[in-house]
Design goal:
10 strands, TIM Barrel, binds zinc ion, single chain, binds fe (iii) ion, two-stranded antiparallel sheet, 8-stranded parallel β-barrel, alpha/beta, globular
Length: about 280
């Protein structure tokens, strides 16, 4: 079964997002846990969360992905900035327990001149202060494009973070097609090779979600500018191959392409059309 959806506005709550997703032909979705600029989170309505849990239990909606604000920096050098990121993430994880068993994805952050090694160390400390044994949420490190001082542009950097996390079983990785392509992994010419590399460095069992985006820029550009499916440098054929790859099946595929809802519906239709159940 293909679980595919797109990034949605969180304004209406869980059941409203589920309704929107279903109207687009989706059976999963992603949302920001709070204003992407890092502000306050909306209060969770327990009745809405309960209704959503029932939808997931019935199988109507698969595993969903919450995305942390992309402006928080979990490896900041500045003490106050780092503390803010940690408090936001801790609050997000508490709130996620209203809808148990889903995914919480975040950007590892920017080392802002401290160097990759120091960045990895701070992110690891952030996670060790964040994760708790009772949590049902799996926390995902997103693969990044290596723009600026971003950590996570190489699989080895994510592996180094994971190696330092005490509650490793609470962790996974989200593979973003635009980011890894911009990071220099040739998913157009050699998808099998890239996935073999991911398996060797991190382990394929850690790939818990896919962000499916085309890229405005060429391989290795370290830019991170998403494009609509088929209109960028990755192209429709390679993106369909990702959706169909045996090593990636069964995980939620989330579109973060520059679209309004009708554009997302069209891309979901296209990708569902390309999907073959078994090969
Ligand atoms: Fe992201
Ligand atoms: Fe992404
Ligand atoms: Zn991106």
């Amino acid at each position: 079964m293909l679980f595919i959806g797109c990034h949605l506005s969180a304004s209406g709550g869980f059941t409203a997002m589920a309704d929107t997703a279903l109207s687009l032909g989706a059976n999963t979705f992603q949302f920001f846990t709070r204003n992407p600029r890092g502000g306050a989170a909306k209060d969770i309505d327990p009745a809405d969360a309960a209704a959503f849990r029932a939808l997931q239990q019935s199988g109507t909606i698969g595993t969903i992905v919450a995305h942390a604000s992309y402006t928080i920096n979990p490896c900041a050098a500045n003490e106050a900035t780092l503390d803010f990121a940690r408090r936001m993430m801790a609050d997000d994880l508490q709130r996620m327990e209203y809808v148990p068993g889903n995914l919480y994805n975040f950007h590892p952050g920017s080392h802002v001149g401290q160097g990759i090694e120091k960045g990895v160390e701070i992110i690891t400390q952030t996670l060790n202060g964040l994760l708790f044994p009772e949590q049902t949420t799996t926390v995902l490190l997103e693969t990044m494009s290596g723009k600026g001082s971003e950590v996570g542009g190489r699989f080895e950097e994510l592996r180094a973070i994971l190696d330092g996390v005490q509650l490793r079983e609470k962790m996974g990785v989200c593979l973003d097609s635009c980011h890894i392509f911009d990071g220099g992994y040739d998913i157009v010419g050699d998808l099998d090779g890239v996935l073999a590399e991911f398996d060797r460095v991190i382990g394929l069992e850690s790939r818990r979600a896919i962000h499916l985006n085309d890229s405005k820029n060429p391989l290795g550009s370290h830019k991170d500018r998403h494009e609509k499916i088929g209109q960028g440098n990755i192209g429709e054929k390679a993106l369909c191959a990702i959706v169909n790859h045996p090593a990636l099946r069964g995980r939620p595929v989330i579109l973060e392409t520059p679209n309004e809802l009708p554009g997302y519906a069209e891309e979901i239709r296209l990708l569902r059309g390309s999907y073959t159940e078994n090969d």
